[in-house]
Amino acid sequence: MIALFLILIPLFAGLVAVFVNSGKGAKGWSLIASFATLALAILSVYSTNHNQLFFNGAWLPQMGSNFSLSLDGMSKMLALLNAIALPIIIISTYRNDYKNPGRFYSLMLLMQAGMMGVFLASDSLLFYFFWELALVPAYFLCSMWGGERRIPVTFKFFVYTFLGSLLMLIGILYLYFKTPGAHSFALQAFYDLKLTQAEQNFGFWMFFIAFAIKMPIFPFHTWQPDTYEQSTTAVTMMLSAIMVKMGIYAVIRWCVPVFPLAVAKFDGLVVVLSVIGIIYASLIAIRQDDMKRLIAYSSIAHIGLMSAAIFAGKEAGLQGVMIQMFNHGIVVLGLWIVADAIEQQFGTRKFSQLGGLAQKAPDLAILFVVMAFANISLPLTNSFVGEFLMLNGLFQYNWIAAAVAIVSIILAAAYTLSMVQKIFYGQTSELTMQARDSAASVNVALAVLVVLILFFGVYPQPMIELTSDTVKTLLAQVKTF
Amino acid sequence: MNLVYLVPLFPLLGFLINGLLRKSLSKSLIGIIGSGAILASFIVSILLFLQVKEQGALPVEPLFTFINTGTFNIGFAFQVDQLSTIFLLIITGVGFLIHVYSTAYMHDEETKHFGRYFAYLNLFVFSMLLLVLGANYLIMFLGWEGVGLCSYLLIGFWFKVDNYNVAARKAFVMNRIGDVGFLLAMFWLLQKLGTLNYADVFANYKNLSGTDITGITLLLFLGAAGKSAQIPLYTWLPDAMAGPTPVSALIHAATMVTAGIYMIARSNILYTLAPLTENVVAIIGLATAILGATIALKQNDIKKVLAYSTVSQLGYMFLGLGVGAYTGAVFHVMTHAFFKACLFLGAGSVIHAMSGEQDMRYMGGLKKWMPITNITFLLSCLAIAGVPPLSGFFSKDEILAAADLHNPVLYWVGVAGALMTAFYMFRLYAATFLGKFRGTHEHHLHESPAAMTIPLIVLAILAVVGGFIGIPEVFAKDAHWLEHFLAPVFAQSKALQPEHLGDATHELMLMGIVTVLSIVMIVWAWRKYSKYQPAAEEETGLGKVLENKWYVDEAYNAAVVKPVNSFGGFLKNVVEKSGIDGIVNGAGRFVQYSARQLRLLQSGQVGSYLLFMVLSIVVLFLIFWNQGIIIAFIQKIF
Fold it and tell me: Which residues form the NADH:quinone oxidoreductase/Mrp antiporter transmembrane domain (chain B) (predicted)?
């Protein structure tokens, strides 16, 4: 029943939160709920009990759709990320006041529930339902609590992802009608389909475009920097730390194993697009003056490597993607927290107006430097092992692709360290002259992340072991074609 | 429990204690913890050294599994053998002296910054130990990037000064360029051999094709060129002098920058099998040696002279590696660690006395006020200039002799560099310590405290006698202790290398000529610069080019940094904004237009949207809990 409650807790907590009017009450309530979810997610990691990890209820039996959830290694890892992220977000933004707090936290919890469902569903209709359940709160969060340009930006975000969802729905129905007998929406039924090359090609693009927009892969990425910039940072954290993982997760769960022939045909194209995206986003990141936009482009570069490693299809690379989905979430969360702390205090995110903050906020500086080096995948931080494995997988696939993609680690060092320098080093600016050290809640949240970064940087093997079953199953499934 | 784990453990603990408690500990306690941690490591290193000397390399036992993906398995394992113990002794020994020195040199810093300094320094030693102790390339790489991090943090230690931060970032980014090579080499090895363990790689080199070995060794060398400041990646090292001077001594002279030499010496069998790479290494090394030496001739900042001298000396070490003189290269790493650390610490002592002044045009005559600094500096200058029987003579001669056997051109070019070395070092010495004081604050001048002079004395003694562990064959048979000690590490290469037997008289004659020429250069520089008066007019011609470091930084800026920046700007402002996003927005406007027709359906009230959403969820769950009864009902209706 763990699987079911991982969704139900945030869902019902979210529905209740709508009716809470006070800010404190909404924060407290959602924090308690998110800790309950976290406890459950941790429990699930250690659980091997089939009854706890799988759930199967009838939903729309006449249509061949079941309310079926399952937790394998990859799902556990992402459920854990989802469950860790929300309490960290709530704690780190505890001092912020959002208008209509009840609705705000309600939507945050509903979004978490939706994403949890995406990571757990093993029925395509259910998957689609949760996919939308995650997106709808995101639209409202972006459009109601964002910056000045939030309306057109959210509209772009909406149209873009909605288009993707629509294509995915077509793809799901297409596969559904291919299933034998009374038809089924079940994941396993899709896995058992033996589609021809032409059928796979069609289905592949229907699914892949939806997920490519979500990740995003170059050139479907332009909604992301705008949305990240304009959303209030707590929402950006949800989008960037967790929601982009929906796209990666979905490619691994719903696209590669269902359409292996199409993947074998188009892998080169996707790898090339991904690698272009890595370098493209890194080069743009170098020229940003806005902290949030820099992190957004940096994140696009990192995600690009994950998508390249998936389509390279090598065991080591896939293993790297598994752990990097988690690790990227942790690191990027840390970067956003600092961005929010800075914006809350100074009302700007422009590097040109900041500087010298290390003198005024030494603890924040140290914590941010750790985040920064995790962002450039320094060994013994958590991102290193993931990137090492992914680049290794890419190298086995095609050494030229790897040699181009790896240039991003140089560019990442350049833009990340220049961000550190412009915000924290040098002389104080007019704005930062009067700066206070960061709030305890921010430091606590960051410290938790730093512990995770260092622990899994030194000892990544448990994460690899947790997810190795998913990699093996995936490769075995692909091989059956 | 294997003793070896204690060696990096002490500095790690020192880092944690000083780092976390830097605000509450006193300066003296911070100094004791910081230095004590390294002393403890040094003592354990001696024990390990004795153990290895008795029984040879210790067995490799993984502490834990670092990465095991099913296709390959990389353990967190340490390798204690002849090569790593030599490096352990250098790192912890010289490291300890520099920690002690730092307690006095950094004493004016605020306590929290004093603590931060020692935390960084201990973290550096920890990373460096990881680098040399790793039993596979990945553990080496962990240390490799770890020392890069510490170098970054310490170059930018005084973070209020923007130039220092730029230098720190430059160092890290240039190192990263090299690291790309290192990473690709590891991927290549993994693809071909499925392992990164030294023992397995070296035992299975026969499974690698000639192309594989050449490619892997060249990529590894790219890594080495970044870390050890070789052409084309050397320009970060002189800028790294922005850090506190003891840091320059420890990181940017004695230890970190020799990591590339360690890496190649460790992989010696692969290099021996790749003659093309060996030639590249030798030529790049020699070119760097000459380039560094020419620039050092015209620098006025004492630390810059020493920095370019380091670049140049590292070049000699690579020359040694390239001609297969692995022992000679390691030997020079060791002697260089002694005399260059001593020179940098001596320079620090001078800067300390001069209240921060680093320009030797405003020094002169310091001998009178700083007798200990003067004598130790002089001895180290003699050592680096290759005057027998000081340490530099033996190690440099061993490299040059091997180069001569390889190709006399390498030898004579190398000698030219050595003569320049003698000249610029004594230019530096004479302009600083001899003649008349040219500065303004004469009354401030003083000898440094004991915590600074004692490390100087110890290092100077080592710089003088350190060469006796490698007495060449021509003087005494089988007197080269270091070669015997390291023999097992290089045995595989030795078996493949053709046995070169140099002619003893020829070798002695060359040795004599070079020694005489070096002494001539020393005397020339001594006479010229002991009465030094800085020229009023600007340098012209070649002098100006050298003073401006051959304009390499300017060339890199114009050829790499600017184009990358403007290309980034082009992507950001044109491709992204008008191109990709333009198309997307165009599509968006079309949709918006269509949507206007449907707008009447939408109230625009967020509350009602929310209500709808919540209601729909409730309905869906009702459906679910009722096992599809509602669907059945709807189906009945239609």
Answer: 136-420
Domain boundary among B517, B537, B557: B537
* Number of inter-chain CB pairs under 8 A, A vs B: 177
CA dist A23 and A4 (Å) reads 29
CB contact under 8 A, A391 and B183: yes
Residues 122-181 of A with CB under 8 A from B: 129, 133, 136-137, 140, 143-144, 155-156, 159-160
Does residue B355 fall inside a structural domain? yes
Task: Give me the pLDDT at residue B627, please.
Answer: 47
Cβ contacts (< 8 Å) between B70 and chain A: which residues? Answer: 315, 319, 468, 471-472
Minimal Cβ distance to A426: which of B165, B176, B617: B165
Tell me whether residue A168 is in a domain.
Answer: no
Structural domain contains residue B278:
no
Pair B420, B440 in one domain: yes
Per the domain annotation, does A289 fall within a domain? yes
Please tell me which residue of chain B has the smallest CA distance to A369: B153
Claim to verify: residue B308 and residue B267 sit in the same structural domain: no
Mean pLDDT in chain A? 91
User: Exposed e or buried b for every residue in B404-443, given b needs 16+ CB within 10 A?
Assistant: bbbeeebbebbbbbbbbbbbbbbbbbbbbbbbebbbeeee
**pLDDT score recorded for residue B500:** 67
In a domain, A378, yes or no: yes
Which domain, by its residues, includes A285? 262-481
A63, A221, A406, best to mutate vs chain B, most B CBs in 10 Å? A406
For B95, the domain range is 1-273
Indicate whether B501 and B569 sit together in one domain: no
What does the pLDDT look like over B357-410, one tens digit per residue? 898 888 888 888 999 999 999 999 999 999 988 999 999 999 999 999 889 999
Query: Quick one: B607 and B581 in the same domain?
Result: no
Give the pLDDT of residue B600: 47
Residue B288 lies in a domain: no
Q: Are residues B260 and B112 in the same domain?
A: yes
Are B352 and B441 part of one and the same domain?
Answer: yes
Boundary of a domain, candidates B220, B238, B273: B273
CB contact residues (below 8 A), chain A span 343-362, against chain B? 356, 358-359, 362
Does residue B329 lie within any of the structural domains? yes
Q: Which residues of B touch A427 (CB under 8 A)?
A: 160, 162
Shortest CA gap B49–chain A (Å): 28
Kindly determine whether residue B70 and residue A460, on different chains, have CB atoms separated by under 8 Å: no
ipTM of predicted assembly, 2 dp = 0.94
Query: Into how many domains does chain A fold?
Result: 1
When CB atoms are compared, the residue of B156, B176, B632 closest to A409 is B176
Instruction: Indicate whether B101 and B160 sit together in one domain.
Output: yes
Per the structure, how many domains does chain B have? 4
Residue-wise pLDDT tens digits, A359-407 = 888 889 999 999 999 999 999 999 999 999 999 999 999 999 999 999 9
Contact at CB, B184 and A395, closer than 8 angstroms: yes
Domain-embedded: residue A271: yes
Tell me, yes or no, whether B84 and B196 share the same domain.
Answer: yes
Task: Check: CB of residue A329 under 8 Å from CB of residue A245.
Answer: yes
